[in-house]
Specification:
The chain has 510 residues and is an alpha+beta fold. It is 35% helix and 19% strand. It has helices at residues 10-20, 64-71, 105-113, 118-140, 146-161, 171-178, 182-195, 206-209, 240-252, 295-303, 310-317, 353-361, 407-422, 441-448, 489-508; strands spanning 2-6, 25-29, 41-44, 47-50, 56-57, 80-82, 86-88, 93-94, 223-224, 227-228, 232-235, 256-258, 263-269, 272-278, 283-285, 288-291, 324-332, 344-348, 371-375, 390-398, 433-439, 476-478. β3 (41-44) and β4 (47-50) form a beta hairpin. The structure holds flavin-adenine dinucleotide.
Length: 510
Amino acid sequence: MKIAIIGSGLAGLTAAAYLVREGYDVEIYEQFEEIGGVTATIHKEGYSWDIGPLLLEGFAPHEKFGKILSELGLTDKIEFINDDRGQSFPDFQVWRPKEYEGPYWRREFFKKLFPSESVGLDKYYEFYDHMMAIMYLGNQLPFAKGLKAFILKVKILVKFMKVRKFKDWSAAQVTDYFFKEQKLKAVYLGILADMVVRPSQFFGLGVPAFNVETAFDKRIPIQTNYGKLPTYHYIQNGCEQLVKALADFVTSKGGKIYTSSKVTKIIIENNQAKGMMLENSEIIESDLILASGGVLNTFYNLIGQEYLPNELISLIENLEYMESVFFVNIGIDFDPSSHQRKALCYYYGTYDIEGAIDNCISGKYHEGKDGFLIYIPSMHSPEMAPHGNHAVTIYTIAPHKLDEGDWAQKGEDFAEKLLIEAEKYIPGLREHIQTKIILTPDDFKSRINVIRHSFGGLAPIIGQTGPSHRTPIEKLWYIGAYSESGGGVAGTALGARNVAKMILRETQNK
Ligand SMILES: Cc1cc2nc3c(=O)[nH]c(=O)nc-3n(C[C@H](O)[C@H](O)[C@H](O)COP(=O)(O)OP(=O)(O)OC[C@H]3O[C@@H](n4cnc5c(N)ncnc54)[C@H](O)[C@@H]3O)c2cc1C
């Protein structure tokens, strides 16, 4: 059976790995000249920068991607660096203490900063513990079968009863319930700005999931009495190492990966996918197709609206996306660690998270004023910069389309403004720049071939699910960050793995 996969991001590569190891004839078609989608690492003059995820959740053996790597026998092929990050607000910074102060040190830290919030903080962390238990059990579910799966479901239900009242609450309602001070609410809602999802639209039960304490102190033991906590890792020498491990696995088992091969049409006969057409008019015949990539391009251009039922068109028309990102990658010739003590810190410039997200969604770029992150990968992977120098990424959320002017016109000026904001925390950046690469939303758009760029795919908002993996066209599956699995490294990969498993079950039963 010949299976063609569109796209060599984590979705395409993961699905390919599961299918190729069962002996299927798998071919991946990637439109860009390099593989990896947004999990690529770019290089210039001895410096390397990731263009996508930085500190990743889900790679420990008890977590989704950790389990995928173990199923594929790839755990030893990638080096992970367990780490944590800082958070900076206009009036205070949150860095893990020099001496370990226990798993709830942030709770006590915030009690000192906001004494009137002590009761709320205690209550929030009870809620947090219940949610961590539910997340742990939920993460085991896709990998369990039979009685084990049943017991897990019962355990989840029992735990869920403890947080049931928050089921339909938004993140804004949940933080309003626990806290009074806007500044404290911003601590727990700030990460939503990273996804450009309004607190009023994000599900309240997700607040602890995006504020896991191990992200702020890696010394917190992951084993608790209710299960294991999520963990956070960098990939040594950049995300491309993960891409390479998966791609090497695919090709070592006979799979083929073609770069600079843009798919322009999926050929459909009698409502069945028969093959694809490439930009150079070459026809690729196949028995099955798995498409990843942007939802509009896939469904409207590659498939065509005439093949889609009205409900699917209406779902696509109403989808809400995350916004885009604006990157300034620089190489510098000094050590910035006396100004930023760890590789990653999020710098927030406002406590009004909802307002800042509103502006971004309406096309107003904040020019760095609302916040950004500074990531210095060469602090954990010295090979990512020439000896003694450092690779630095300053990035922030940005509208995919500006309300005034365009990115091509404004990119350079915005890069300078972002650097000026970053210099408030790491002085002297601009005078020490050795090299620079700016990536605007337009650059991302063409790099991964999407009509509407969204840095992580569909926005995780209450009530939204993307188009299902099983499309209305027979023998055509949809995977990736815009599909029902949603965005994010571990979730996207798990969705692709699940599709591969469904295909294996269905084809092997025939
Ligand atoms: C800046 C940034 C930060 C992020 N941070 C995090 C994070 O901290 N944690 C987290 O979990 N996730 C994060 N994400 C999100 C996560 O990386 C993505 O959701 C996930 O990697 C998407 O994988 P994918 O395979 O669906 O898509 P992609 O990586 O976009 O891959 C799709 C591929 O398909 C190719 N393609 C598209 N159309 C065609 C065509 N017609 N023909 C051939 N090829 C085609 C594209 O070129 C691309 O290579 C981040 C993303 C970005 C950009």
